[in-house]
Design goal:
alpha+beta, 3-stranded antiparallel beta sheet, 14 helices, 9 strands, 10% strand, disordered N terminus
C-alpha cells in the first residue's frame, strides 16, 4: 500500500504524511542557513498523526518565539572556516593573519573534527591544558598565547550561538592559565639622558625622540603623516599606524590604530620644533631625489628617497644604541613606558596620560603603571606631612 500523503499544511505550519512503515512524518522549513545560504528542511517523526501534529505545532511556536534550536551538522573546523571567511568583520590585515594562524595551527588540528553541537567545555579545557603542558617533546605555550587562542575560539562560538547552531558558548566556563603582566622597565632619568646623547645626529634621532616624549607606539610613529601634524596649534593627530602584512613578502600599509580610536595630543614645544626641523630636512631629500622621490603616503618619517621605514630596521638600530649603553634588555616599546612614567612623575594627571597613550580607560593606565602611582602616593603623603608640620608651627 503506497504511503498516504497529506500535503495540506497543518495548524502551526509544515506538512504531514504517513510513511511506508506506518509511522508519521511532519516536515517543516527553517529560514536559510546563515552559514551556507541554503534552505533548511527538517522532519519530525511519531507513531500517530496526532502526535506529530502536536510536535509540529510546538516547533512552529518555538520558531515564532525565537527559542527553536536545531543542532548544527557542521564540525568545528567547517564552522571556523565559514566564520573566518564571512563573519570576523572589518579587522586589520594583521589581525586576519593572526586569526588564521590561531585557527589553522592550533584549534583545527585538535578540535576541528568534533561536531559543533557536540563540543563541550571539557573538550576545550583539555585542549587549553594540553597547549600549556606541551606534547611530543614540544614546550607548552605561554598563558598569553593561550589567552589569544581562547579569544579567537570564543568569538567564533559566540557567532555560532547567534545563529542557533549551539545553545550556549561552551568556552565561557573554561579556566585560562594565569597570565602575569611582565614588569615594565622604563628608562631612568640618567639613562634617558645617556640615550639622548647617543642618538644626537643619528639618522633616526627624530623618530626616537618623538616616540620617547609622546608615548606613541612604533607603528603609530612610523605611520604618522604630515597632515596630522598641526604646527599652528602645536598638536599631533594619531589616527593611523604603519603595519606590515603578516605573510612572506607582505607589504607595508597604513591601517587604523589599536582600538580604532584616534587621539589628538599636545607634545612639548621642543618636539614640535624637532618635527619642523625634520620637515625641512625631508624637503631637502626630496629636492635631491627628484623624480625618484616616492612618499605617496605623505609620511613624516621616511628614508632619503621617500620610502617608508621598516619596523625591524628602526628596532635593530635602537638595539645597537642601547646595547652600547649597556642597556641591552631595553625594548623599543620601553620608550613608550618611559614617557608614561616620566609624565606621571612630573605631575601630569592620569586622565591626560591615559588619553595621550590611547588607553581605553584611566584605570588601565593606573593598573599598568601602578608602581609609579604608589610612589607618587608616598611622595604626596610626605608633602602633606610637611604641610601639617608647617601649620602646627604657625
Amino acid at each position: 500500500m503506497p504511503a498516504r500523503k497529506n500535503s495540506r499544511a497543518t495548524q502551526g505550519g509544515g506538512t504531514i504524511r504517513k510513511r511506508k512503515d506506518g509511522t508519521w512524518e511532519a516536515r517543516y522549513t527553517l529560514p536559510r542557513d546563515p552559514g551556507t545560504g541554503k534552505q533548511v528542511q527538517k522532519s519530525i517523526y511519531g507513531k500517530t498523526q496526532k502526535e506529530v501534529a502536536q510536535k509540529l505545532r510546538q516547533v512552529a511556536k518555538d520558531i515564532y518565539d525565537g527559542v527553536h534550536f536545531e543542532p548544527s551538522r557542521l564540525n568545528v573546523g567547517q564552522w571556523l572556516d565559514i566564520w573566518l571567511a564571512e563573519y570576523i568583520g572589518n579587522v586589520k590585515p594583521f589581525t586576519v593573519a593572526s586569526y588564521n594562524t590561531q585557527v589553522n595551527v592550533h584549534i583545527k588540528p585538535e578540535l576541528g573534527a568534533t561536531k559543533l553541537s557536540a563540543l563541550t567545555t571539557h573538550n576545550i579545557q583539555v585542549f587549553y591544558n594540553t597547549l600549556q603542558r606541551g606534547k611530543d617533546e614540544k614546550a607548552g605555550l605561554s598563558p598569553k598565547t593561550i589567552k589569544n587562542i581562547h579569544g579567537v575560539l570564543h568569538k567564533a562560538l559566540a557567532q555560532a550561538v547567534k545563529f542557533n547552531y549551539i545553545k550556549f558558548n561552551p568556552s565561557d566556563a573554561c579556566t585560562l592559565p594565569r597570565w602575569e603582566r611582565k614588569e615594565i622597565k622604563p628608562l631612568e632619568g640618567a639613562e634617558v639622558s645617556a640615550f639622548l646623547k647617543a642618538i644626537d645626529g643619528h639618522k633616526y634621532e627624530t623618530v626616537y625622540t618623538v616616540t620617547l616624549f609622546t608615548g606613541m607606539r612604533q607603528g603609530e610613529a612610523l605611520g604618522l603623516t604630515w597632515p596630522c601634524v598641526d604646527f599652528e596649534r602645536g598638536t599631533i593627530l594619531i589616527n593611523r599606524q604603519l603595519q606590515k602584512e603578516k605573510k612572506k613578502g607582505g607589504h607595508y600599509q597604513l591601517v587604523t590604530i589599536k582600538n580604532d580610536k584616534a587621539r589628538c595630543i599636545t607634545p612639548p614645544p621642543s618636539i614640535m620644533k624637532a618635527l619642523r626641523k625634520h620637515q625641512r630636512t625631508q624637503m631637502e631629500w626630496q629636492l635631491k631625489a627628484g623624480e625618484v622621490w616616492g612618499n605617496d603616503m605623505n609620511l613624516v618619517f621616511t628614508n632619503e628617497v621617500g620610502g617608508h621605514l621598516a619596523h625591524f630596521t628602526v628596532y635593530k638600530q635602537f638595539k645597537d644604541i642601547v646595547s652600547a649603553l649597556k642597556l641591552s634588555e631595553a625594548r623599543f616599546h620601553d620608550l613608550r613606558h618611559s614617557y608614561a612614567v616620566a609624565a606621571l612623575e612630573s605631575g601630569i594627571d592620569v586622565k591626560t596620560v591615559q588619553e595621550n597613550l590611547g588607553h581605553h580607560a584611566a584605570a588601565f593606565t593606573l593598573d599598568v603603571y601602578g608602581h609609579v602611582s604608589e610612589r607618587m602616593k608616598q611622595e604626596s603623603a610626605a608633602r602633606m606631612e610637611a604641610y601639617i608640620s608647617g601649620v602646627k608651627n604657625l
